[in-house]
Every structure is written in C-alpha cells, then in structure tokens.
Amino acid sequence: MVADTPELVPLLAHLARISRRAAERAADDDDTTLRPRHVIALELLRDRGPMSQRDLGAALSLDPSNVVGLLNELERDGLLERRRDPRDRRRHVVTLSASGVRAHERSAHRYREIEDRIFASLTAAERRAVHDLLSRVAADAADAARPEPRD
Amino acid sequence: MVADTPELVPLLAHLARISRRAAERAADDDDTTLRPRHVIALELLRDRGPMSQRDLGAALSLDPSNVVGLLNELERDGLLERRRDPRDRRRHVVTLSASGVRAHERSAHRYREIEDRIFASLTAAERRAVHDLLSRVAADAADAARPEPRD
DNA sequence: TATTGTTATACTCTATAACTATA
DNA sequence: TATAGTTATAGAGTATAACAATA
C-alpha cells in the first residue's frame, strides 16, 4: 500500500512552473499581461476592498520588502492607489482603481487562453471543480493571514 | 456576466508560494526534505523509468542548463545515477536508486504534514479529487513534452 | 550540421537586516 | 518599545548564449 493521502505541494509547484513557461512562450514582445502575483493582488483588493500594505502582503504570502516593489509597479501604471491612513499615519491604504479592474480582466482573459491548452485534458466541469476547491483553500489562507478583523 | 471559465494559472502560482513558505517555516535547521522539483524528478523516474537528461528536463519543464545542477545535487546524495548511453554517447541515462526511492518517501511524508494544514478546509475526498485532476494534467504535460516515444 | 550536456552569465524572485516615521 | 513601510543586499531560481563531444 502506498500513500493514502496525496502529496500536493510538489505538484502545485510543478504545475505553476509549467503554467508560467507556457505563458512566457505565448507572450509577444510587447506583452502587457500582468504576472500571476499582480493578478492575485488585484483580485484581493477587488474582493476584499482596500487594505493596508501589511495585510495585502500577508494575504499574498509576500515579504513586506517585496510588497513595496509590487505596489510600485501597479501604482505607476495607475492600477491602484496608496494613501496614508489618517487614523494611523504609518499605514498605507491600498485601493484598486477602475483601470486596475480593467487590467485585471484583460489579463484574466489571456490566462484563460493559456489554460485552455494546459488543462485540455480536463472537462469544463472538472476545471471548475479544481478552481472552486483551490479558491477555497486560497481564501482560507488569506483569512488566516489576517488574524485581527478590522473594527 | 463575469468569467464563465476560471483563471487557474495565477491561483496555482499563488498556492505554490503559500505552500513553499509554509514548508520553509516548518523546516528545522538541519532539514533534509527535498524541494518540490527534486520530488517531481524522482517521481518521474520512478513512474516512467530511466530517461535521458533531455527528456527529464522536458518533463520537468526545466531548462537543460538547470537540469545539470538539479541532477548534480541528487547524484551527489546517491539518489540517482547518470550513465552514458552506449547507443548514443551524447546522452546521459538517468536512473533512480534505492536510496532515491526512500528519500522520496521521506520527503513525501513531510509534505503531507504541511498539506494537512494548508488544505484543512478540504475534506479528504476533495483533496483526493484535486490531486487526481492535477496529476492528470501533469502527466499529460509530461507526455506532450516528449513527442517522440522511444522505439 | 544538429543534438546532448555543460559552463558562464545576467536577470528575476525572494528573504534578511537595517533604517525612517510614526505609534 | 513596537509597528508599517522602505532600502540595500545577498541568495535562490531561471533563461540565454557559447562551447565540447558526439551523431
């Protein structure tokens, strides 16, 4: 008898690399598709509303020092805004912009084209099942990363 | 109406990072757990038998120049062997060792402990479903990466 | 000429430490 | 003192180019 519980962690890393390389091969030279972590950042802001850089970094599982660079890029392109929190001037409150919503939609569309090839062996229902289950895991991880619910 | 087909690529990258960081936090200082791509490499050799570095790299979706370093590590620790193919002396045939099988099992066990936390919001059946579906995608990707079936 | 494996190298991603400004 | 954000920096991961050996 072998593993009664499967090891998913190496499999996730493996498929993440396959996906990333497929996206790179599919990209033109002047490709503006957002990279995965940009997409996730915009989704978190869209689904959970404005939040501090700290909370965003925790939800992304990204080191604070790297959140800075990520937000610099997204802010430079006008996809979000950073404003100082008047109630705690140490904090920057990050807010998604209308451009950010549109950019997210464009990139999501591009990723779906890539997925049509990578996940061709799954039926539409199976793809949806994988997406729903993994989304739940990601949402719970984001909740767990923010132990103090605001106000 | 929003996305009728989900975007999985960013989600996979996101969960891969969450998993990797959870594994790092759980590791002792003298941790010998194999990293995800080592685990996948050993699994490919176990499930598909000996193959050339080129084919292994293609199945891993890893650049040939980086396959070298990966195999150097695994060979140094005795988990696999490289032998010149007598029928084509350019090729190195990579073969899993008995130590490699044991090392894989130990690491797989460690990853399962980490997954118990990450995937706590899924039932055992749901975890199995995700694993089975993603395994199929990975297996098909590995097949597609080796377009010429040997003899 | 083309392919396999290799080396050298640059670029991206990520973590750690030290700093600043605020609390 | 402690925390949010930032900067600097080193290490890991990865891709590209050039090379040697072999076909």
From TrEMBL, chains A, B:
Gene3D superfamilies: Winged helix-like DNA-binding domain superfamily/Winged helix DNA-binding domain. One of its GO terms (biological process) is response to stress. InterPro entries: HTH_MarR-typ, MarR/SlyA-like, Tscrpt_reg_MarR-type_CS, WH-like_DNA-bd_sf, WH_DNA-bd_sf. Keywords: DNA-binding, Transcription, Transcription regulation. SUPFAM superfamilies: Winged helix' DNA-binding domain. Residues 5-139 form the HTH marR-type domain. GO terms for molecular function: DNA binding; DNA-binding transcription factor activity. This is HTH marR-type domain-containing protein. It comes from Marmoricola endophyticus.
